[in-house]
Amino acid sequence: MASLYVHPIEGLSKSFVISAITVAMCTIWPTLINTMVGVGQISQDFMNVSKVLNLSWYTHLTKIVLPAIIPMVFTGLRLSVGVGWMVLIAAEMLAQNPGLGKFVWDEFQNGSSLSTSRIFVAVITIGLIGFALDRIMLMLQRRFSWDKSLATR
Length: 153
Known about the structure:
Layout: H1 14-40, H2 44-52, H3 57-95, H4 100-110, H5 115-144
């Protein structure tokens, strides 16, 4: 039976590659869908101005489209980071990659009296890391977005 993953890259295990592909496949959709919705919601007035000024496709893209869709793109990116973090933990559990997911799974399987407290600490750690990732994405959104209403949040 032929395998897609034939030649292991030094330092990358098969379970790591499978987990990375799984996370990538799960995280692309929120950003892609939000980007498409953002493009669909560009004001017709902006499009008309672009036509009247006879802007090139590059100028149209950089001066009209990108500034208009940046808030939606970053919303999709923030959703993707959250989904990716959850999927990464689950993939670590299933693929037995070293990390928080494997730690939680091993402690769950262990069944000792201290396992519940260790799992609780791991879950809190997972939540704090997820919260920190969201705050980092929000900080980047504030930096790159023209939507200054984000500065008050």
